[in-house]
Amino acid sequence: MLIHPWDAARDDAEWQQWLSVHDFGQLAVNGPAGEPPFVQPLHFAYDPSRGEVLTHLARPNPLWGALEASPDVVLSVVDDYAYVPGPWQADPDVPSEHGTPTSLYAAVQLRCRAHVVDDPAEKAVLLNHQVGHFQPEGGTARVAADEVPFGRQLSGIRGLRLEVNGVRAKFKYAGKRTSQVQDRIADGLADRGGPGDTAAREHLLRRQQV
């Protein structure tokens, strides 16, 4: 992923805060020689204090063999994206039709070392952590090995702990453009009000103020 200086995260807090509320991504695992990578969509829970990601997958998932053969993986998360029509980006001294269309988006890629969790008690801890992240209001019984209602289901999944050892974060929100063009893009997003436009506009305005 190309990251220009004006699109880079300002600091670790920026991407960590964004990742705390964007917890669905794609896990990329190297495939066998000559084959494309495995790419698995999944929910996950990121723990910045431990520098790790917790998730789980069904035991029959074909990804496991590739993961054990090559445990260095990338978790990719992309959201808050919007299309920007060319006229919105045109500089004041050129015709509007000369403006270049572009995309706005936030993206975080975590390079990780994968550790498979098969011990039933450890899987229960992992699952309870995930449920606590996604469902802090409760309402679901805790998982415990050999106990109802979920103990018997633990054999059907494998846990996954991803040890984060590298981060690439990008916030592509017209950072190279003049304030006049940025304001025009922000106004256009507000007027259009399409999916993703509000979030993209908030990022643009937030980074404009830094």
Shape: elongated
Radius of gyration: 21 Å
Number of strands: 7
Into which percent range does the helicity of residues fall? 25-40%
Uncertain residue ranges: none
Strand neighbour order, sheet with most strands: 2-1-5-6-7-4-3
Q: State the order of secondary-structure elements, H for helix, E for strand.
A: HEEEEHEHEHEHH
What does this protein look like?
There is one protein chain. By secondary structure, the protein is of the alpha+beta class. 30% of the residues lie in helices and 32% in strands. It has a seven-stranded antiparallel sheet with strand order 2-1-5-6-7-4-3. Strand 1 and strand 2 form a beta hairpin. Helix 5 runs antiparallel to helix 6. The protein starts with 11 loop residues before the first helix and ends with a helix.
Question: Brief overview, please?
Answer:
The protein is an alpha+beta fold.
Task: Itemize the secondary structure elements and their pairings.
Blueprint lengths: L11 H9 L3 E6 L8 E6 L1 E3 L4 E7 L4 H7 L2 E13 L1 H4 L12 E16 L2 H15 L22 E16 L6 H14 L4 H13 L1
Antiparallel strand pairs: 1-2, 1-5, 3-4, 4-7, 5-6, 6-7
Helix pairs in contact: 5-6
